[in-house]
Amino acid sequence: MDARRENEPTSVTNRTTVNRKSERELVVTRSFNGPARIVFEAFTKAELLRRWWVPKSSGLSLLSCEADVRVGGRYRLVFGHGASKPMEFYGRYIEVTPHSRLVWTNDEGADGGAVTTVTFEEKGGKTLLVMHDLYPSKEALDGALAGMEGGMRETLEQLDELLVTLSASAGPL
Amino acid sequence: MVQYSNTRLDASFAALSDATRRGVLEQLGRADASITDLAEKFHMTLTGMKKHVGILEQAGLVTTEKVGRVRTCTLGLRRLEEEAAWIERYRQLWDARFDELDKVVEELKLKEKVDGRKKRK
Q: Which residues of B touch A138 (CB under 8 A)?
């Protein structure tokens, strides 16, 4: 069905897309110019994972990266950011199907985190990667996105301060 | 940081200049509420409360959503705009990660080729 696409030059830019599929789901997709076994390997070997998981542009550094990729195995990533307290991300692999599917939990959150499912679909030497995050609630996903940007929280904090100042100057309501 | 335009800031200040509207924001800080709830709490007509909520909504301080016959008010900025910005930020992070992953994939492909050649020898 997709035979024609397989003949496209590999120089075509592979674009990353992100869609909020529902209130609790976020989906990231991207194609890679390589077979699924190689992309899968880059996801499942800690020494390879650590080379790409923390892009230089993020300003973060990876302090430690452990990944025991088998059902029930654990992973733990620790990031540093300047002088601030290191951030830790950890969880368990709950499904490992070589070259096609990986499922892991994200356990660092207080009330149960998202479950991440990654599928690797090979077509004509290219691999379509689909990364699906299912959050326990709408609020959890909102929070994850806002936490990354920090913008919403910051803005609401500013609003809080403004409210305090204004109600103080206005006297009792 | 979220960039405020001057008009947006003016609208926020205008919205916050009224004691009832500040009260409404405090109330919504505790829990979402319908316009009817708010009108009752502030001893006000529905029309009067609708007007206040409208001003807060225009300033981007409150969002409302109508489900059935009830309009629920939530504290917060225009959710859709905010969400689009968050998602774009998230996309950029993954795009940067995947650009690095591209390099790893290229290297592994090359290694496979070389190893394959060695085996044939």
A: none
